[in-house]
């Protein structure tokens, strides 16, 4: 059979699949198809839109559509698909139609904060809606002689069977339209220790997967080896709630588990034994784990030692208001956040060869939670200001509105209450961007800093281009230059600032000056 993987992109609390990232879904699915000797084709939704009039679905026997968001965001050079768009694209397709990704789950999907739509009627369009793991369901489909009947569409795969799929599916990266300039999102574990008490009120992760289930380091390393051999040099060890908790022996009994330093070093050291990555970054980290366990300092040192510069540990703070923390089971207290920020600044604040510090924290704030009042905005601002006044650095502050996903503790009623403070939310966001983000950016990247290997992505006008370094949460760089090309790498000297972006000029090396 000829299978097409249509990647509409995914974004979840512990996993990103929006370009320049390629997520886990298409790679794992491709691995199963490869195992059963199927013809595999891959296309992103943006590439499809570009060639839509020339694209012929009739040459495929089946289409596997990947779509859905549990963490809505904004993206520079990618436009994620909605489920409605996917259905319209496949409306006249007569072959097997399979839906995978967050849109297929019972929780639903949202592309913007504060809203969620009932998409059950759209799901009915598909022959198979995968509420579990697409690779597991697809595997069972082939074992069932390609019959839909009696397949458990909610089945989750175990990590021992994933190993083969992850390695076999690595080759699909060569079909990505941005190859080889893509970042592979790498899964280390899923589930969350917070599941022991029900998890944060809004989060789907513990409700989907329970307490943590870890991948063996050797399997992760073998997957990275395969990806590296197929030309991928950019990696984010990102698909987990907290990298500091990887392989923790306490994760089944403690919500703030003690880090397993030995296993974390084994993982990152092992990656360098099989690959020579140009970028090796992480994503999520629990500030409570960092603040409450001395072992976290050793983990931070490991991340500085083995990861590349410009790395960001994203803290799911959500709120500094203790009333909101209690009513939403957030666990992390303000003093935890402050201590964790201090630790990462101390260990990771030194400037790397990329031009950015080695490892800095990022902070996520979420609005529309239970117990939120006007005072919440003041409390959150004051803590951000305190971090700045202490001379500490944050790589970025992410401010979003919560989404009431089906199956979580938040309700539409909770969200409606939050919407009444929409103007306050917008004014708060503007105040943070102006009074915290901008001066913080000047601290993180002072004028004259040389940012290495900025990838040119967008042409705004003849003398203005936009680009970013590869990695977690890269800074947007506006480059004043006439003779640049999309897709090239340049070194940029920082000369000015936007609210959250940088203006730069092409850096002239000493060797060029000497010539």
UniProtKB/TrEMBL annotation:
Gene3D superfamilies for this protein: tm_1862 like domain
Source domain of life: Archaea
Pfam families: Radical_SAM
InterPro entries found in the cross-reference section: Elp3/MiaA/NifB-like_rSAM, rSAM, rSAM_horseshoe, rSAM_sf
A Gene Ontology molecular function term of the record: catalytic activity
Protein name: Radical SAM domain protein
Radical SAM core domain boundaries: 178-447
């Amino acid at each position: 059979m000829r299978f097409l993987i249509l990647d509409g992109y995914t974004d979840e609390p512990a996993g990103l699949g929006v370009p320049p990232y390629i997520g886990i879904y298409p790679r794992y699915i491709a691995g199963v198809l490869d195992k059963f000797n199927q013809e595999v084709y891959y296309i992103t939704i943006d590439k499809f839109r570009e060639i839509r009039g020339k694209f012929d679905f009739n040459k495929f026997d089946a289409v596997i559509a990947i779509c859905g968001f549990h963490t809505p965001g904004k993206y520079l050079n990618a436009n994620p698909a909605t489920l409605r768009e996917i259905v319209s694209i496949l409306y006249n397709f007569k072959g097997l139609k399979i839906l995978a990704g967050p849109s297929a789950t019972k929780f639903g999907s949202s592309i913007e904060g504060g809203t969620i739509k009932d998409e059950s009627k759209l799901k009915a369009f598909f022959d198979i809606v995968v509420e579990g793991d697409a690779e597991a369901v697809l595997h069972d489909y082939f074992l069932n002689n390609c019959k839909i009947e009696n397949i458990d569409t909610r089945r989750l795969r175990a990590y021992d069977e994933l190993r083969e799929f992850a390695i076999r599916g690595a080759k699909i990266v060569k079909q990505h339209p941005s190859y080889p300039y893509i970042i592979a999102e790498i899964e280390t574990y899923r589930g969350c220790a917070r599941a022991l008490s029900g998890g944060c009120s809004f989060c789907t992760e513990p409700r989907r997967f329970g307490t943590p289930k870890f991948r063996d380091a050797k399997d992760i390393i073998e997957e990275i080896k395969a990806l590296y051999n197929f030309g991928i040099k950019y990696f984010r060890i990102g698909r987990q709630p907290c990298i500091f908790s990887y392989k923790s022996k306490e994760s089944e009994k403690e919500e703030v588990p003690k880090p397993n330093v030995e296993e974390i070093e084994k993982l990152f050291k092992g990656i360098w034994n099989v690959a020579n990555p140009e970028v090796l970054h992480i994503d999520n980290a629990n500030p409570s784990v960092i603040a409450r366990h001395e072992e976290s300092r050793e983990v931070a040192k490991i991340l500085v030692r083995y990861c590349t510069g410009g790395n960001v540990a994203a803290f799911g703070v959500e709120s500094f208001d203790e009333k909101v923390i209690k009513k939403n089971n957030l666990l992390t207290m303000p003093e935890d956040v402050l201590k964790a920020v201090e630790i990462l600044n101390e260990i990771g604040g030194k400037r790397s060869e990329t031009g950015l510090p080695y490892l800095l924290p990022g902070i996520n704030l979420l609005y529309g939670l239970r117990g939120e009042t006007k005072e919440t905005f003041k409390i959150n601002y004051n803590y951000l200001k305190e971090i700045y006044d202490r001379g500490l650095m944050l790589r970025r502050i992410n401010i979003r509105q919560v989404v009431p996903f089906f199956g979580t503790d938040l309700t539409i009623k909770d969200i409606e209450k939050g919407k009444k403070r929409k103007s306050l939310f917008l004014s708060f966001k503007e105040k943070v961007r102006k009074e915290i983000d901008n001066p913080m950016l000047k601290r993180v990247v002072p004028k004259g800093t040389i940012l290495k290997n900025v990838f040119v992505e967008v042409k705004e006008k003849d003398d203005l281009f936009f680009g970013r370094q590869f990695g977690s949460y890269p800074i947007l760089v506006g480059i004043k230059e006439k003779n640049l090309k999309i897709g090239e790498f340049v070194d940029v000297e920082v000369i000015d600032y936007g609210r959250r972006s940088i203006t730069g000029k092409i850096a002239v090396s000493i060797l060029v000056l000497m010539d």
